Amino acid sequence: MRILFTGGSGKAGRHVVPYLRDLGHTIVNADLQPLGASGVDDLRVDLTDSGQVWAALTQFGDIGELDDPAATDRFDAVVHFAAIPRILIASDGETYRTNVMGTYNVIEAAVKLGIRKVVFASSETTYGICFARGEMVPDYVPVDEAHPTIPHDSYAMSKVANEVTARSFQARSGVDIYGLRINNVIEPHEYKSDFPAYLQDPDLRRRNIFAYIDARDLGHMVECCLNTDGLGYEVFNVANPDTSVGIPSAEVAQRFYPGVPVAREMGEWETFYSIEKAQRLLGYAPKHSWRDALGMERP
To answer: What are phi and psi of 50, to 5 degrees?
Structure first.
């Protein structure tokens, strides 16, 4: 596929873009900062400007394409990851404006240009737990896509608004638009630097529902979305199958979720951020674990 990938220079994108490139896709990275990855074209685009978005989706990525008689300026898919990535980076209003308008512009242009596959980054924060003031617990565990989304902050609000935008454009167009409620992205080097503290103090992971997503497995998730057609509008939790702490799930539930209903029987080390839907509908099969990086045996 020829793919416009927004936000490819960010924490998640800089792993996902090379992953997709290595699968043989042609990638144009639309970002304010270049990625500089071999074989990936960088295009500086302000996504809050609809004209720039439209132009990015209707032009070549580099001079080499001008010399290729078989090249086309048409994109087969859009993967939209660009955003202010959390609260407390910009003002709340600017975070909301940037994320909502950027997503609206990207999906609007993609749909009106007839692109039949859009994958966009939503967030675990939509469930209201991550950036809540004080402590908030889920309505039930494991948290699946049916769990209420009641955001408590401008970033999560923007992601819920983006899901409504995506659903609306899908309803009027019939294209496939898949939203990824991405959990805490972990780069490979962060296992050794960060996870020893998580093993010592599981409380550090309560805002992330004790879950995580390896950046490489996030690339696999995007691949699954690109390879799966005909679902219309869907949202998917994205995480690894195990928790990010060193105590069994039953002990996590006892210590941190007393009185919270358990919707179904869970595996001994199973994530509280359910990925069953992605496994069932997309064939999602993440393979990386913090245990491998720390030299610990998998259960």
So the answer is: -60, -35
Q: In Å, how far are 83, 105, 115, 220 from 51, measured between CA atoms? A: 18, 9, 17, 31
Query: In what order do the strands lie in the sheet containing 233-238?
Result: 41-44, 26-31, 2-6, 77-80, 117-123, 176-182, 233-238
Residues for the chain: how many in total? Answer: 299
Copy the structure tokens of residue 215. Answer: 């950046």
Q: Is pLDDT above 90 for 239? A: yes
Confidence at 127, pLDDT banded by 50, 70, 90 = very high
Q: Could you tell me which residues come within 8 angstroms of residue 232 by beta carbon, excluding any fewer than 6 positions away?
A: 170, 174, 176, 177
- Token pair for residue 53? 């978005």
Per the CB < 8 A criterion, the answer to whether 289 and 240 are in contact is yes
How far, CA to CA in Å, does 42 sit from each of 19, 37, 106, 256?
A: 16, 9, 17, 44
Residue 231 banded pLDDT, cuts 50, 70, 90: very high
DSSP codes of every residue in 218-263: HHHHHHHHHH-----EEEEEE--SB-SSSS-HHHHHHHH-TT--B-
How far is residue 156's CA from residue 161's CA, in Å, rounded to a whole number?
9
Amino acid at 99: N
Domains of the chain and any CATH numbers: 2-292 (3.40.50.720)
Of 60, 174, 160, whose CA–CA distance to 115 is shortest? 174
pLDDT digits (tens, 9 = 90+) for 5-42: 999 999 999 999 999 999 999 999 999 999 999 999 99
pTM of the model: 0.96
Rg of the chain (C-alpha set): 19
Angle between helices 13-22 and 215-227 (to 10 degrees): 50
